Give the backbone structure.
Amino acid sequence: MARRAKDGMAITGERTASREVSRPAPRRDGLSEMSPGDVDTDPSRRPSGQQTTDYEDEARRQPTLLIRRTLRSGQRVRFGGNVVVLGDVNPGAEISARGDIVVMGWLRGVAHAGADGDEQAVVCAFRINPTQLRIAQFIGRAPDLTESALPDTPEVAEIRDGRLVIDRWQSSGQNHPGR
Amino acid sequence: MGEAIVITSGKGGVGKTTTTANIGAGLAQAGHKVALIDADIGLRNLDVVMGLENRIVYDLVDVVEGFAKLKHALIKDKRFENLYLLPAAQTRDKTAVSPQQMIDLVDRMKQEFDYVLIDSPAGIEQGFKNAVAGADRALVVATPEVASVRDADRIIGLLEAQEKHNPFLIINRIRPSMVKKGDMMDIDDMIEILAIELLGVVPDDEAIVVSTNRGEPAVLNGQSRAGEAYRNITRRLLGENIPMMKLEEDTLFGKLRKMIGFKG
């Protein structure tokens, strides 16, 4: 499952968007004809004549690393693609990804998305309270001495108007209509 | 040309990092230009105790490997303009740096700073050797426990073998009431074994736990007994002649008990 599926379409097959894709993206033609069960990325089993999005190709261009554990202090992940963590990222742990970073848990360590300079990259986590956040060349750090209440909600960090901002996660890609 | 001082102990958990942070802040408060080096690669803590963890971008290993410039890796303290921290790498280990590289690094830093304090890791292996390599002087931290004194003695021997003579002793976490009852080694017992010059005695103080967790050195806290002890240690390090802090009033009963050697 570790594939880049930009706005959940690969999973739901919903008729959400071929709208305003700003970066060159694979053709998604034919997707609207598919029912959820039809998503099949194995070309050999693909019925001839039926148009299917080539997720294999997309996955090659945007590989994703799935980490099914908590990253602890001193553990560092560097990856030339997206990184998904099924667990927490503790203080002292570091993730550096060329693409996006998704943490299905607490992000308390250091995360660097778009490490090669991609300002479109995002960091999302169930709870974001990082030591430091970096996207492309932008760096944000946790405020000093705050026990201030964190929003008890999933959030996303991104570059908006030249600033690194953390915002509540909105469903179905509303955070990034351009992606 | 500044002076490089390593803070070491052999045993872990006796207060090397706390001592480094407090003496560093004390020296900076006295107007000196100070750099702290966290030599505990892989288990860094000094950044947390200084409350600077969230500012780290480059670290000691990045500098040694030439990946980052020293001035980019140094983090300016949030309280003092003249206090800097060179953090350790957390995702590497002690073998990432060699003693010769540490000597070169510390020599470079001594050009710029009046004092370079090096926080040594526990142990006597490569991390210790790295930390000690570039130092001109050593401060040995020990707590009033047999194990800690034993390790401190070993460390002093190793320092002498490396031609680092005349280290100073800091006795940390002493509890006057326990010493009085004879339940804890007292200062004289420790000096008798270690036979090095005593720079100061720091009483056990709950405020230290609070201050290290908050990232605010206790030396800046006028209320803290340990902070006062660290202020005195800093001044002695600068050559002032400050009498040892009186830990607790001696009672006649206590003296008597000591005289007849009553233990426990």
